[in-house]
Amino acid sequence: MNTAPKPRVLVARQVFDEVIEKLAGHFELQYNQADAVWTQDELIARLQGMDGAFVTGTEAIDRRLLDACPQLRAVCTMAVGYNNIDLAACTERGVLVSNAPDVLTETTADFGFALMMATARRITESEHFLRAGRWTRWGHDMFAGADVHGATLGVLGMGRIGQAIARRGALGFGMSVLYHNRSRLDPAVEAKLGARYVDKATLLRESDHLVLVLPYSPASHHAIGAAELALMKPTATLTNVARGGIVDDAALAEALRERRIAAAGLDVFEGEPAVHPALLQLPNVVLTPHIASASLPTRLAMAQLAADNLIAALGQGPHAGRPPTALNLQVLGAR
Ligand code: DGY
Predict the structure, then answer these.
(1) Residues labelled catalytic
(2) CA-CA distance, 235 to 145, in Å (whole number)?
């Protein structure tokens, strides 16, 4: 019988009960099912003596935290994006980091497409009008927006989610698909998606509906600012399901106010959950609270994947030592 003490793990946010149960089978567990808001100092205090942390996209795993928690060996996030985790600092300290790719690709692509369509066809703007009791008669151009079918879809960031959005556009809606990415896709993949690689300026100039799906990093900070917006068509829409900070929200609000682009759909914001006040005042922007991956089955799959990573990273379960989606697996070899 194994009498070794169980590793200690903190679950930083509320998560599905079945995931808590799974983790509790392997760890001495502290959790936050009340979803209390912790300051960074509280998070650090709660991580004292913990071997592992189950986190989301909202906890900052930075150098100060890592220095204050030297016993930490694994940080597993249920998000695919991990710009809240200092991966280099974790790797230097031998802390394994994992994220949750793949399981959310199709769900996030569905939402990206839906947000783009809602933006192009002015769905929320017209709903607000109706709810306000302002609909008195039919009008020939009432809430007339832009077509999606047959239009040019631009995808900035052609990873898994970008490709899933491109597929929807090309196969489902007969769109011409342009993309720009750090590296060009294999020609066979391009052909399958019906997507054409172009430089960023061409993408901005030619897209009718531009969708952002690139990861956030210092290099992608304000990848869409005033200069980029100035290249876009006045009839174009911009949809962001990637990360806040990729778009300069103040510059976007200005461009929307002056109708230099037609409309925007935003699921992510600089400094969220705060939203730039100018965006809140504009009719031609659809705003959603960072929910692109939020279908119940997908959020559960993301949380289960993070749990599986944590269990394996801390030497538990049938896949001990082989976390399925580690970002710095080399730290396990070095232990
Ligand atoms: C992700 O998985 O990165 C989503 O944006 C949720 O944080």
Answers:
(1) 243, 272, 290
(2) 9
